[in-house]
Amino acid sequence: MSVSLGIPQIRSAGPAPSPAPARAGLVDRHGRRATDLRLSVIDKCNLRCTYCMPADGLAWLPAAQLMTPAEITRLVTVGVDRLGITELRLTGGEPLVRGDLEEIIAAVRAGHPGLPISLTTNGIGLTTRAPALAAAGLSRINISLDSLDAATFRALARRDRLAQVLAGAEAAAAAGLSPVKINAVLMAGINDHEAPALLAWALERGFALRFIEQMPLDADHGWTREEMVTAAQIRARLTTRFRLTPHPGARDGAPAQLWDVHPGPGDDAGGGPLGTVGIIASVTEPFCGDCKRTRITAEGRIRSCLFSHEEVDLLELLRAGATDAELAERWQAAMWVKPVAHGMERPGLDSPDYVQPARSMSAIGG
Ligand code: SAM
Ligand code: SF4
Fold this sequence. Notes:
By secondary structure, the protein is α/β, with parallel strands linked by helices.
């Protein structure tokens, strides 16, 4: 049985609550400028990660509601040419579930030779598709991997697919999509003990590992602050085996706090760092003030924030024959009212500031 989530309030037309002044780019009332577009190509997925999806899946969008390659390309072009978008990430659901992903990437690349295009994926299918994705013009890849143990992987993803993900990561590297980035979410008592092993595995292969704090965006609404593995706890786990020092350089809107990784006490023979590790502390060390993101869901709706309760329909406008200028104007109005922060700054989900969005992570496009 699939679950149908409530859809957030949708504005398809009409003025934004406080009209956006005429200005270049995707600016908001709080002085931020969005230059990084996260676009979901599909809501469907072939895994059921407990922190994201319910066991029975969700009610998937009908194919006709998904953006076509031409529609995706048109919106990206409006974003890049008129609104100052400088980076594109394709996500989902699971983007590799779309058989025409290579076509989407090739179409965007044809119009934007210099645009960094990255992909966030669970890696299943990369063994056969990584070379074609690279040839289509994909610049970089993030592969989600939470455990190196088959039973733990199965418990977390509710599917027995560890071998395919590991092979997919190797295939991505072999296809030249380097440096491969790995995203890991830690769950208390399930895989948090694996943090050092995941880091050692990534360092050995030259993969860039980033831990992401679990956010309350699961369809089952099972998140609790008490059970969430915090950035501080992740650092503590890692320092049982490695020594971490802050990576030099400004963060500049990047969500991951980067650390240089050195061998642990006793193993340290001098020399430089073994590599870096990133920790994305969206809950305990939020970075909303520096956010550069704008999002489009698989059915073409703008979300100004991961945690938004409101969406603005861009695809409907496009399908009604809007000009590029009209699409850009609606996009700007949607971003102007971006919330100042996600509301989890104060501890406790009973905080009046935090209300979990109706959509879960896979349906938003993480
Ligand atoms: N299916 C692809 C994948 O897993 O990489 C792309 C979509 S998934 C929603 C994107 C990223 O969001 C993944 O790295 C996943 O681990 C992360 N994610 C999903 N639910 C999350 C949650 N509740 N908290 C933090 N990260 C989450
Ligand atoms: Fe699917 Fe990615 Fe969500 Fe896991 S995190 S269920 S792979 S969309």
